[in-house]
Amino acid sequence: MQKCKTHSTRKRLKLRVRSWRRIPKVPLLPPNWSLLLVAPEALLVVASLLQQNIKSRLILRNPEKATELFGEQDKEKLQVFKGDTRKQEDLDPSIFEGVTHVICCTGTTAFPSRRWDDDNTPERVDWVGLKNLVSALPSSVKRVVLVSSIGVTKFNELPWSIMNLFGVLKYKKMGEDFLRNSGLPFTIIRPGRLTDGPYTSYDLNTLLKATAGQRRAVLIGQGDKLVGEASRIVVAEACVQALDLEVTENQVYEVNSVEGEGPGNEAKKWQELFEAANSR
């Protein structure tokens, strides 16, 4: 009975992955790229990259999450490593061999919750974990994209000081600053309040239904002035599009998603959005 149930579940998972057509596909990346993606939120990016046959590596505390979602994948396309950025010993140099680009989506809740179990606090995740990761990366990495949060520069001001009662914005800003000062080329994406999730379920169709409305238009700003919400799918797309654009190198952007048609996977439209933000 258990065997049948497992087979049925895997079959549903395969169907759901194949049906992921409403997520904008990312542009085809150069075949010599090797992407390293960190944390569960990066699974959104992985799904699109698998469709494009882009070689990726994924660091997860629980690699079974990737298997549940994507099934067994060709290791030439996707390699999954068990690792915890809070633990330096988990970040073996072999994980980073040949890696050219990195997307980091680590995070935890702003307020005490069950997700804080096992010392999974903002300080350990957003500060210590990011510092460990950046310190472990080879100097040859061409770009590090970090997902942070709006409000990090205003954590002592209302209403942000409420969100920062346990230090989440302060530690995210400390992580940002460490990356900035590392000497590695970077892009920092600060989304508004994340919607469509959290992305912890294998049920892709549920997620797609939550994002299939009209909130696909994208607002991009700088200076920590934007407030609002951001679709996880939009944030994932912003990360991928920013990876190799010259205009986004060593830049920080706030991202919101609003009513209207979005840029989808059109690189030119994304470049125009980033350039417009730079010129303001």
Q: Any descriptors?
A:
280 residues, alpha/beta, Rossmann fold, eight-stranded mixed beta sheet, two-stranded parallel sheet, 35% helix, 17% strand, NAD(P)-binding domain-containing protein, NAD(P)-bd_dom
How would you describe this protein?
- It holds the Pfam family NAD_binding_10.
- It comes from Glycine soja.
- Residues 43-244 form the NAD(P)-binding domain.
- This is NAD(P)-binding domain-containing protein.
- The structure is a single chain.
- The chain has helices at residues 2-18, 43-51, 64-70, 122-136, 160-163, 168-180, 204-211, 232-242, 267-279; strands at 35-38, 56-60, 78-82, 101-104, 143-147, 186-191, 193-195, 217-221, 229-231, 251-258.
- The protein has 280 residues and is an alpha/beta fold.
- It has a single domain, classed as Rossmann fold (3-Layer(aba) Sandwich), CATH 3.40.50.
- It has an 8-stranded mixed sheet, with helices on both faces. The protein has a two-stranded parallel ribbon with strand order 7-9.
- Strand 4 (101-104), helix 4 (122-136) and strand 5 form a beta-alpha-beta unit.
- The chain is globular and about 40 Å long.
- The protein starts with a helix and ends with a helix.
TL;DR?
The chain is α/β, with parallel strands linked by helices and 280 residues long.
